[in-house]
């Protein structure tokens, strides 16, 4: 890696990456990287439809518009028009999300519930200056696990309603104000990535910093804790969603520019959490692709090359989240070509739901997320049974893409596990 990043300096910052360093990326992905570095496309025969699809997945459409808006001769007019529309949409949604954030903070403050705002919901303006450049689809709020139920009740009493998408294990169902495109996600853990040591809210809260929000004082993680969280967030998406996004790496780069990091303290935090080699691998990737300035000891070419092979690519995430368990079973069955046991299992689950077995399942109304997970498991089970009996082209395509996504996700998850076990 010495030809890409100088290891003779205590801090290493690479030049703009060339095609040789990005051999694992597609042509269109390399164009995205060039765009966030402020360069016009040098690649020939660009598939602009594919490029725009990837720009949506990676969340960098607004950054591309800023770079390419003055180069109408080099970029197709319809691409520039779509990028402009995308940037305006992100600006509107980000402004609404920040307003929702301030409202939620006031509600939780009145309920005397401590709360930390995570990632872009707190730092988008500090990182990028212009919130139109950094999409804020929802606002992540970290609360103590002991206050999670009270926090949800306080927001619902103020008019929020539970969303329809199943949440990961570390936060509750997204809460939405009727008519708003934004949502509030209450986290009671920082991640569901299997780290050796838990990250304790009280420790994070004691090290938190206060920022001036648009209409409220915003408490967020300290600079080193935020950097740990951003690294964990990338690894979590690689492990669970099958790939990293350029926006996640841009966030790390902008965070390093916006704050002075105590690297000794950062190293101590990674040791405390058991992040292992994962933090260095992510920082090294951000250095290569986005020009992040990181200590030379956090640059590892081998780890970067492995992570480089797992960018987010497949546009099946919503279908996957909606029918995750069913698709996972379908993928397992596709390797065995054995469907009947799954149908028997699903019939048993349906009997459990109706209470006709000797040990019916009872779900407490005080555990809405768990109740929702049970309902979604039953729904997804029935979804797979129905599709296993149908042979339409669209349904076969959905199952095929879902299975491909799960296989890619499994490979990426194995990589993350390896990184977390290397000291």
Name a few traits of the molecule.
single chain; 3-stranded mixed beta sheet; 423 residues; mainly alpha
Characterization of this structure:
It is a single chain. The protein is mainly α. It has helices at residues 27-36, 48-58, 61-68, 77-110, 120-128, 148-157, 201-206, 223-241, 246-258, 263-273, 278-290, 301-308, 317-322, 324-336, 340-354, 368-388, 393-421; strands at 11-12, 116-117, 139-142, 161-162, 175-176, 184-187, 209-212, 217-220, 294-295. A 3-stranded mixed β-sheet has the order 2-3-6. The chain has a two-stranded antiparallel ribbon with strand order 1-9. Helix 3 packs across helix 4 (77-110) and helix 14 packs across helix 16. It starts with 10 loop residues before the first strand and ends with a helix.
Strand and helix layout:
Layout (H helix, E strand, L loop, with lengths): L10 E2 L14 H10 L11 H11 L2 H8 L8 H34 L5 E2 L2 H9 L10 E4 L5 H10 L3 E2 L12 E2 L7 E4 L13 H6 L2 E4 L4 E4 L2 H19 L4 H13 L4 H11 L4 H13 L3 E2 L5 H8 L8 H6 L1 H13 L3 H15 L13 H21 L4 H29 L2
Parallel strand pairs: 3-6
Antiparallel strand pairs: 1-9, 2-3, 4-5, 7-8
Reported for the largest beta sheet, the result is: 3 strands, mixed
Terminal CA distance: 20 Å
What is the C-alpha radius of gyration, as a whole number of Å?
A: 22 Å
Order of helices and strands: EHHHHEHEHEEEHEEHHHHEHHHHHH
Q: State which percent range the strand residues make up.
A: 5-15%
- The low-pLDDT segments are 1-9, 337-341, 352-371
* Number of helical elements: 17
* Total count of strands: 9
- Helix fraction by DSSP (H/I, runs of at least 4): 55-70%
Overall body shape: globular
**Main sheet: which strands, in order across?**
2-3-6
The secondary-structure class comes to mainly alpha
- Look at the structure and give the mean pLDDT: 79
């Amino acid at each position: 890696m010495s030809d890409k990043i100088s290891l003779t300096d205590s801090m290493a910052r690479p030049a703009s990456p060339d095609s040789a360093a990005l051999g694992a990326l597609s042509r269109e992905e390399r164009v995205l990287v060039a765009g966030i570095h402020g360069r016009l496309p040098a690649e020939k025969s660009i598939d602009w439809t594919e490029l725009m699809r990837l720009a949506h997945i990676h969340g960098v459409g607004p950054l591309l518009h800023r770079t390419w808006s003055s180069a109408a001769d080099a970029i197709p007019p319809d691409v520039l028009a779509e990028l402009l529309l995308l940037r305006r949409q992100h600006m509107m949604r980000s402004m609404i999300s920040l307003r929702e954030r301030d409202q939620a903070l006031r509600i939780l403050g009145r309920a005397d519930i401590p709360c930390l705002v995570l990632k872009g919901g707190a730092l988008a303006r500090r990182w990028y200056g212009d919130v139109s450049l950094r999409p804020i689809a929802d606002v992540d709020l970290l609360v103590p696990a002991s206050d999670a139920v009270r926090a949800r009740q306080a927001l619902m009493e103020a008019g929020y309603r539970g969303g329809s998408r199943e949440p990961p294990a570390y936060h509750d169902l997204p809460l939405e104000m009727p008519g708003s495109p934004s949502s509030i996600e209450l986290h009671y853990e920082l991640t569901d990535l299997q780290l050796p040591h838990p990250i304790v809210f009280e420790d994070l809260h004691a090290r938190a910093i206060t920022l001036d929000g648009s209409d409220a004082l915003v408490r967020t993680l300290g600079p080193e804790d935020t950097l740990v969280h951003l690294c964990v967030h990338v690894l979590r998406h690689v492990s669970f969603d099958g790939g990293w996004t350029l926006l996640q790496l841009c966030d790390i780069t902008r965070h390093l520019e916006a704050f002075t990091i105590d690297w000794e303290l950062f190293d101590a935090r990674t040791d405390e959490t058991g992040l292992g080699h994962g933090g260095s691998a992510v920082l090294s990737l951000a250095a290569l692709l986005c020009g992040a300035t990181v200590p030379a000891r956090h640059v590892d070419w081998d780890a970067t090359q492995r992570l480089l092979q797992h960018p987010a690519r497949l546009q099946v995430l919503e279908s996957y989240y909606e029918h995750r368990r069913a698709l996972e079973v379908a993928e397992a069955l596709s390797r065995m070509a054995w469907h009947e046991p799954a149908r028997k299992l699903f019939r048993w689950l349906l009997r459990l739901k109706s209470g006709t077995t000797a040990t019916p399942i009872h779900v407490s109304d005080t555990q809405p997320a768990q109740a929702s997970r049970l309902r979604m498991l039953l729904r997804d089970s029935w979804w797979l049974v129905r599709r296993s009996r149908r042979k339409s082209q669209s349904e076969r395509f959905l199952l095929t893409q879902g299975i491909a996504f799960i296989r890619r996700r499994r490979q990426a998850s194995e990589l993350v596990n390896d990184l977390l076990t290397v000291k």
